Amino acid sequence: MVERDCPPAPSALPRAGAARRRLTSVAAALLVLPVLPRLAQAATILAVRTWPADEYTRVTLELDSELKAEQFTLENPHRLVVDIEGLTINAALNDLVSKVRPGDPYIQSLRVAQNRPNVVRLVFDLKQAVAPQVFTLKPVADYQYRLVLDLYPKVAQDPLIAVINKQGGPDVDDPLARILEDIQRNPGSKNNPPPEPPLARGQQPAAPIPTPKPPPVSAGRGKQRMLTIALDPGHGGEDPGAIGSSGLREKDVVLRIARRLKTLIDSQPNMRAYLTRDDDYFVPLHVRVQKARRAHADLFVSIHADAWIKPSANGSSVFALSQRGATSAQARWMADKENAADLIGGVNLGSHDRQVAKVLLDLSTTAQINDSLKVGNSFLDEIKKINRLHKNSVEQAGFAVLKAPDIPSILVETAFISNPQEEALLRSASHQDKLAQAMMTGIQRYFTANPPLARLGDVS
């Protein structure tokens, strides 16, 4: 007992300390060793995608880990060079070369090379000068880490000019529009319609189909003001939206409906439509709002196709903005889901002033909401003629895309794409036509009952 209670001999202390240090060193090595191969291993590319569009082209590399990239541009000829650390040349990168489409408005071709060990260089041969944005995204939804390259033109086209260029119908109270129309007039414009084909012998001319039209809107000096309707097909590009059981994607079907509705609007006198996206590419929510405002829209209609966890859910819905919380738990859930589009589609948070965006989204007014509810009720009255309504009244929630402070704005959930029967309807071209016509009539009913005021400066 006495020997066990005695302290160890002085000569034993160094040996014990050395043993403890060796044990600690071995334990540390066991903790570090499994990590070292991971640090040396190159990242794996899971997928590569390109999204060319008139507004910008997006190139996405999806990876299993986050990487660092640096870029610079060259002139004569225009090129974009991107160096990506932590990569080696592989089949997926070579596949990216083949994904450059001939009609891409910005990328002529792409070259890939191992610039130095562990660094891959991408060289984009460009068709025009670009203002590139390169950023990374954390994993979200079905995506892992993404490296995103957005190629914007150095001089972006104004949305209002884009409307004039594509649609050919000038705003009679807009001097800039008149000048643009004079310069860029084409034989197929509304002012110069192509001649009617000759009738066959004995053929009678077809009687015109009467279509209800909104009343003329005075713009001062006896002129009539052009009404601009901003159509916002939801999702797009990296964000497919909801997907039905047969594979129908929300982003595709709502774009088809929006295009059909645009055709109907453009056929009306003193009306024109502007699409916030006219192809398969992603547009951030706040940019959709900004586009509508820059185009001087009189109405904003965001078009979607609903989804729910149970396939039995069905019916169409219309939503307006709320400043006091959602009118139902489902409306709040729907707003949260739609507001998450920026996370899925991928927004470069460093590319714009967050405070400016926040101010824009917080400026909603009571008058805008009241007008939006009127529009929504007109839409519900027409849509219920072709599809069951999920709710008989306009619901409200904090949808970011509805927060234009000075434009009546609604979001239309055309049907539940998660319901097999309604998914089949959404896939049908004839049903898409019916939805477009119902919304067209809803627009006309609203403006008939609520003619818009003349814009500032219309009256001398």
What does this 3D model show about the protein?
With 460 residues, the chain is an alpha/beta fold. Helix content is 34%, strand content 21%. It has 14 helices and 14 strands. A six-stranded mixed sheet has the order 10-9-11-14-12-13, sandwiched between helices. Strands 1-2-8-7 form a four-stranded antiparallel sheet, covered by helices on one side. The longest helix is centred in the first third of the chain and has 21 residues, at 12-32.
In short:
Helices cover 34% and strands 21% of the residues. It is an alpha/beta fold and 460 residues long.
Helix proportion of residues, in percent? 25-40%
| Count of discrete alpha- or pi-helical segments spanning 4 or more residues | 14
Structural Rg: 29 Å
Q: What does the overall shape look like? A: globular
User: In sequence order, what are the helices and strands, one letter per element?
Assistant: HHHEEEEHEEEEHHEHEHEEHHHHEEHH
Structural class: alpha/beta
Give the strand order of the largest sheet, numbering strands 1, 2, ... along the chain: 10-9-11-14-12-13
Strand fraction equals 15-25%
Mind summarizing the main beta sheet? Answer: 6 strands, mixed
Low-confidence stretches: 1-14, 23-40, 168-212, 214-222
Distance between the termini: 112 Å
pLDDT average, as an integer?
79
Number of strands: 14
